Structure formats: C-alpha cells, structure tokens
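Recall that a protein's primary structure is simply its ordered list of amino acids. Everything else, from secondary elements to tertiary packing, is in principle encoded there. The following example makes that idea concrete.
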Amino acid sequence: MNATSMLAVNIGNAVTKIGLYYSDTLLAKWTVTTPETITTSEVQTILMNFEASLKYNKEVSKLSISPKDLSPKGSIIASVAPPITKAWVSALTLVCNRKPLVVGPGLKTGIKLGYSDPSELGADRIAEMVGARNLFGAPLIVVNLETTTTFEVINDKGEFVGGIIAPGLETSAKELANAAAKIPVVELKAPTKVIGKSTREAVQAGVVLGEVARIDGLVSYIWQELGYETKVVAAGADAKVIKVLSHTINETVDNLALFGLSVLYKRNAKN
C-alpha cells in the first residue's frame, strides 16, 4: 500500500482517542471526552478541529507532506460505546469519502481468538493485542490500565486464549472516595512508603500498591496456568506509574490501541 494518511479512532468508556497516521508513523493524536450521545455534525466538528490543530503541530510541520497527502484517505474505529458509533461512522465516511473499517466480526486480526463468544470481546482489547503481538511476538500478556484493568493472554502459538477484567486504578480510587466520606480522591502516583502517615498517603499506598500487587499476582497465576512465563507489556494512562513498582511488567507502550488499529487497517483496507 502506498504511503497515505488514515485516521484511527479508539472510542473508550471515558475518552476517545484520534490518531492521524501517515504510512506507519503516528503524526498527531487528539483526545476528547466520550459523551453519552453525539450527532454526526458534532463528530465532524471534532474532526475539523483536529485537522485545524495540525497547523500548529511541530512534528507535522517538520515533514514535507502536502495538505492533499495529509488528508485522510481512510479510517478505522474501535468502539466500546455502541450508542455513538453510528455517528462516528457517518462523519468519517463524509471526511474520508469511504466508510471506515470497524473492529468486530469479519475483520481479519491475524490472531486466533480463543474466546467462548468472540463478539463479547471489546474492540479496544482486540486492537491492543494486535498491536502488542505485532511489536513483541508471542507468548505475551498485555495489561491495559484505563477505566478497567484488562489482561490479554497470547500463548506460545500466538493465539489469544482469554483474559481478565478488573476495575481500573482511577475507578478504584473514585469508588473508595465515594464509599467513605472522609477519604479523599488522591493523585495516583508511586508512594514513597508502604505504611502511610496520613489518610492521603494510606490511600495512595492502598490503591497504587494494591494495583501493583494485583497485577503481579495475577500475572503469576497466568504463568502457572500456562505452564511457562511470558513477556508482559503494559499500556494505558497509568502504565508508567505501575511499571516502576511492578516485578513482572517488562515494557510500556504509548498509544498501543491506535498502533493496533493502524496494523488492522493495513491488514484489511482495500486500495
């Protein structure tokens, strides 16, 4: 496929991430809040604002790419928010002059999905495992830390054999604060001590170190069930915080879902 621009859109529970790829390079990305409802016109406005912001993007300005070449010729969506997916599909069709690819049944992933019902598997999880498999091979565990903390397990044959879903770091902190009036919502950073000397320090230790212990413990259980150890890759908003403290995470990857979407686009798009 010739070098062309395409848009990768990852619609999550809390935020929607938009990435502009030129060939294999992520030129620019934008993050907006995921609303409960949205119209096609509103999505078009988001995309127009994203395009307008490219004029001020230093990475884009360094490259000798004409506005025509920079204009996206295709797109791909991973969405866990069905009520607003249709509006994004309609808007991207208008912007790119062709319907976007949508991660789901019928899309070639290159990975055998060993899930009882593959339609239950979140599109974002598919994008992440495809991206990680492309970067690191197999066997592999992909840990994504967002609204939820998910584990995707790829065995030594390169097959997805299942995973784990748990509350995310920020979700746990908010739920704790909501459940107890005197417990504050704290900054989620690596605590300097396990034993907190204040309520804030105690919550940080419990939430952050508790998440680390959970991840390391679950990874150990997965290895035991597989019968061998794997590489462990973390992605998501809190990945770097957790990796500093984890005994099992080997790598962190920025924009893993967007990268996975770019791989899926190349694998499925027709010229």
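The radius of gyration is 20 Å. The first helix runs from residue 40 to 53.
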